[in-house]
Amino acid sequence: MLTIKIGGQAGWGIKSFGHWLLAAVRQRSGFGFFYPEYPSLIRGGHNTATVTLADRPVQSSWRAVDVLLALDQRTWQEDGPDLAKQGWLIAWEGDVPAAKRRWLLPAAWRPEIPPERQNSLFWGALLALLGWPERLGWEILQANLAAAERKQEHLLFKRGYRWGRERGEKVGWHFRPLKPGKTKILSGNEAIARGIAAAKCGYAAIYPMTPISAILHFLTAWQKKTKMVLFQPEDEIAGIVAAIGASYAGRRAMVATSGGGFALMSEALGMAGMSETPLVIVEGQRTGPSTGMPTWTEQADLQFVINASQSEFPRIVLAPGDARAAGRLAVTAFYLAEKYQLPVILLTDKFLAESWLVSQPLRFPKYRWPRLLLKAKNYARYQLTKTGVSPRAIPGRTLVVANSYEHDERGATSEESRVRQEQMAKRLGKLAGFQLPDGTRRYGPERARFTLVGWGSTKGPILEALAKLPEANLIHFEQVYPLPPLARKWLNSAGNLIAVENNSTGQLSRLLRQEWGVKPQRQLLKNDGRPFFPEEIISFVKHYGKN
Amino acid sequence: MEKTDFLQAAVPTWCPGCGNFLTWQVLAQSLADLQLQPAEVAIAYDIGCSGNMGNFLRTSAFLGLHGRAIPLAVGIKQARPDLTVLAVGGDGGFLAEGTNHFIHAARRNDDITVILINNHLFSLTTGQATPTTPANLPNKTAGLFKQAKVLNAPALALTAGAGFVARAFVGQADYGQILMEAVRHRGFSLVEALSPCVTFDPIYTFAWYRKHIRAVKPAADWKKARQWAEGGDDIIKVGILFKQADKSK
User: Fold this and answer.
1) CB distance from A402 to chain B under 8 Å?
2) Domains detected in chain A
């Protein structure tokens, strides 16, 4: 395993560098995980890309940096402390003092190279340090270049590579890839967008917001093929209300947003619940509260999405643990929304949405989707049934009345006691005993001294940590609401429970306590906007083990 | 189709003499005259006295949230261009809570018909000021709006780029024709229906409107339409103020 980090200002191609590295390791039949961090601005600031490479699947970046590429002095100041003792540094002469395992690019070159082009030079040097072929590096680099840029970039890349090779040193690491099978480079957002398309979603209303904007971009790029109706609304309220209208009218519909946009949507979330209109909501969490740290990660909206909107109505919350699960659960979300006629929230976060990895290709579940009634006379949209789910028709050939007021079976507003009780029982009964196959999974040994408990995107770093923690296992939730009954047994028979959550107050712990009376003995929480590193989890568990 | 095909059996819950009775009856007649089927007309209703019409008209319908009938109608139409889609609500819903939706739907030329029933008040909540409440109209929160200008729906729609803008007094003889024209129009159409609140509004009564309205002939002159929309001197211009030629044909 090898972790490489590059840092510099926004606009210097830091993120591109991460993509190159991931593409290169994939071509070398290896695996990698890439996570970019950046402030909310377009130029300046401090951007980084961290890529962990290995000859086996990697599910998280690690903290300890083996190779640091500092395009400016600030990178050395901010990220230098994470450089491993035996780590390598490539930087500009003058930015850092010379030492062993430090490659310092001649300061004399600096004035002639525009800062936004120096990534090509560093890329060349890194390829040499890794001992990877020059051709591989150039092929990847030139793939996204305009013809006019090629010559200049090639010269820079070549200069970096040759300069590096002349130094005659190579980074030492174990990299013996086996046959990896078919792999793809995936991000959480791309996986979700592909899932949305695979589910044959027919309508998406999305107001741009970090970290989900890429979903809008993918869907827009594919629109010719998918024929999806796309709406960039005036605000998130219009977006969700229009999506509910589209769903009522017969299109499979969704919205995507982050916590702030979801806050605006919460009244209409209740309308989807009350009117029993299928709807998928992708909520990509970021660091709050309020505007918070818009481009950083957090898992602090769990209790919010479970409780948002007034009064009581059923909803499902799914939190994928990785990109493949994100694609799969996107399809599942649409299916469940239609099966139970309710809102389903797909809860991701910046860490999952905007991280890339070499992964097995996506696979989507196949479902027998509920059928619509094509034509019905005297149709009652809210007909009482055993399951609580009424036959669904759409306007056109059938007269369909949906209602956000309490209503009788035909959809007419009603305030009668009997009608109210019947309809509440109908709605709230729809999810009795709901358990998604694979909604929760146990990883590692069945019995262990320590059981880590996590949900959503922390799965990656926890699994990485688990490989070094033989005494621990993991219970992971992707179905977070309603809680999957299966996990209750596991939790009750587990030893020391350690909840690992990317928030300040332990929101899953609170839910477990509230629903099942299960109280994790310890909590490992993190709220600085950064995802967990496996090292943090390893040291927490080891420390706990000693006491 | 007959008018009665568009009427529910339910007895409306409006105050006796409420202007909404007229919109209810005239709209049912207009939809019948347009040869539409109740199932293929989808009406998004706002919240308020006017929105309660959702229980009395017989079409496909979605009784939505306060201020949000317009985006609801927009989504329905985007998903199903084959449906005839209307948004029915009041001055409170469309010009207070949902003003931005009103402006943006007009600007995008979304193919819906907005019937904004203006009774100058939040009447379902027993008479507070809305953005259209005239300064001289006593109401429960009048004191909070001493400096406030009155929002003019047709003028706002024209500014936002609406292609069809009408204003009608609910008691005028050709109200139905105006509604039919609006529904027929491809693209965004607005009908501001001046509708007396007989319980909370002592000034702007049926008799008052009869004295103060002046009909105009449909025009395609935007500047003139703006002037008509603004009005003045207690004279209110009614009729189709602006009708842009249909570019999609």
Assistant:
1) yes
2) 2-166 (3.40.920.10), 185-359 (3.40.50.970), 372-432 (no CATH), 440-546 (3.40.50.920)
